[in-house]
Amino acid sequence: MAHVAEKKKKIVEHIKNEIKAHHVIGVVALENMPAAQLQQLRQKLRGIARIYGAKKRLIKVAFEDAKKDKKDIDKLENYLDGMIGLIFTNENPFKLASRLRRNRTKAPAKPGQVAPHDIEVKAGPTPFAPGPIIGELGSLGIKTGVEDGKVAIKQDTTIVEEGQEINRKVAELLTRLDIKPMEIGLNLKAAYDDGVVFEKDILNVDESEYVDNLTNAARESYLLAVEVGYPTEDTIKPLIAKAYRESEGLALSQGIFIPALIKKLLARAERFASALAGKVS
Predict the structure, then answer these.
(1) Which of 27, 91, 119, 270 is 20 to 30 A from 148, comparing alpha carbons?
(2) pLDDT of residue 52
(3) Which residues make Cβ contacts (< 8 Å) with residue 23, sequence separation at least 6?
(4) pLDDT at 96
(5) How distant is the alpha carbon of residue 21 from its chain centre?
(6) Roughly how many angstroms between the first and final C-alpha of the chain, as a whole number?
(7) pTM
């Protein structure tokens, strides 16, 4: 028993040392992560991040001891459900989440697994000839027809909702349809960074969509600032140009001919006369 207790103390001490040595501590879900793939991922992350698995009770003890050095580190206890591990890194938590996503691979569903998202069968042709498959699809609420001698699915249909268990019948059908709804890889549930805990919904933001949103917001704010006449470093030049054009228009409408305006009108008249002369000749 003394040996067991000593082993547990070493595990807690190891976790505490890793927490002290790294700015970012994450909780990762290890469900559906085969040992071989986990080892491969550890190799890919070498020098960037460390993955460590331990019992939840020991992790909680380590968090409690470490919170004097890492403020609010114990908030990660809220994410210690299911089969979990810890990941330690000094990389930005959003970069870490992106890196983990890039290392995920699609996999077929197995009976008993929980759907990570709504699983949908898309409308379109299938490779199946008419037969029992029509009844199998129909039993799952999938509408079918026959096109060019093959079974065709008539409309998109959700057959398993997020969080529901996938039964054997559904798993077999998804495999036959070559639909791989599962992913093999680490799912970052939450990450701690300098007293702040970022949840997966924030960490898993679509980077390209985020950049597009920022670009659109910047463009629209620029156009709005110009429209309402709000001067900034970026808008001052177009605002002055706009004011100059409008003052010219006002001067013309009121018959006011200042030297600069007369010069511009004469230049326009010369260009018009030249173009007219070219047409006549």
Answers:
(1) 119
(2) 93
(3) 89, 90, 193, 194
(4) 92
(5) 28
(6) 112
(7) 0.59
